[in-house]
Amino acid sequence: MNELNLPSDFIKNIHNSFDEEGVQFIKELPRLIDEASQLWHLHDVRFVPNLSYNFVAFAGRGKEDVILKIGVPHPELNSEIDALKLFNGNGACQLLESNARRGFFLLERLKPGTMLADLTDDDERTNIAIDVMQKIWREIPSASRAQSASSNEKFIKLTDWFGELKKIRPQYNGGTGPFPKKLLERVESFLPELLADENIKLIHGDFHHFNVLLSERGWLAIDPKGVIGPAGYEIGPLMINPWGSLSDGSNFKAQAKRRMSILSERLGWAQENIIKWATAHAVLSAWWDTRPDGTGGEYSLWCAELFEGL
User: Fold this and answer.
1) pLDDT in tens, 279-297
2) Considering the entire predicted model, what is its pTM?
3) In angstroms, rounded to a whole number, what is the distance separating the alpha carbons of residues 4 and 262?
4) Which domain range does residue 18 map to?
5) Cis peptide leading into 192, omega within 30 of 0?
6) Domain contains 2
7) Domain final residue pick, 86, 108, 130
């Protein structure tokens, strides 16, 4: 059943990611769209061409252009809504309305909507990215972390994400499968030190060139995961994107070195730590992308090995 003529890849993503809940979500989506439209008085709802893991559509509300987003209710969707509330439009897309229980939220429409990936000057892209990430980060002072633990439970913990790397060896009967043994051991050796960094913030968590768009209010982030952890992690997704745009090792290395230099100068971080965060994220990204047959994480592992060689 596909009353909306949804892209087959979108349907496959939802089914694979959410199992039976995903199957039910696709079946109920026409009704959910009608429900959200009635709730917020929307008209002219039409889905965007690049659907991935949530239903996203252009819509009108009176004379206002908005974005309707509907997802399978789950913790990451809730953390996105809560992060957008905290960002409150400062460096990020403005959340206009939300109903976390139903998986509905209404967002500011960003115009012209140019993606950071569309710019050709990588120095310019990197500096814009740094400007935006610094606007959205929210402080979590170490002295108040214990007292504010309950309020932080609604966000994703970076330590939980990296805890998934412990599944690699059991997955491959004690081996490392497609993950180069030395690379994995290297990441395992420095990861505790990275995660012990006290520069803890609420960060975007998926900050890259396709999640930063140009608007009438300037460059803004979209689709935050809402992650609590050391701010250094934020540069990981940035360093391996735009995804697959440079498949030549020498060009990739030159770009990575230049980005590290700018990040280090602007943020005051040691280049060694930037390399470590980039490598750690690339390995984690590869794990997320690896299919049961061991394929799927090749690009991220390629990036990780190049970072290690810097």
Assistant:
1) 999 999 999 999 888 899 9
2) 0.93
3) 45
4) 8-108
5) no
6) no
7) 108
Label residue 104 exposed, middle or buried (CB < 10 Å: 0-12, 13-18, 19+): buried
Cβ atoms of 105 and 181 closer than 8 Å: no
| Strand intervals (E) in the chain | 43-47, 55-61, 64-70, 95-99, 104-108, 138-139, 156-157, 200-203, 212-215, 218-221, 227-230
Q: pLDDT, tens digit, for every residue of 200-250?
A: 999 999 999 999 999 999 999 999 999 999 999 999 999 999 988 887 889
Sign of CA dihedral 196, 200, 205, 208: negative
Residues 195 and 125 in one domain: yes
Amino acid at 244: G
Among 56, 84, 108, residue at a domain's last position: 108
302 and 166 within one domain: yes
On the question of pLDDT at 146 being above 70, the answer is no
Helix (H, G, I), strand (E, B) or coil at 70: strand
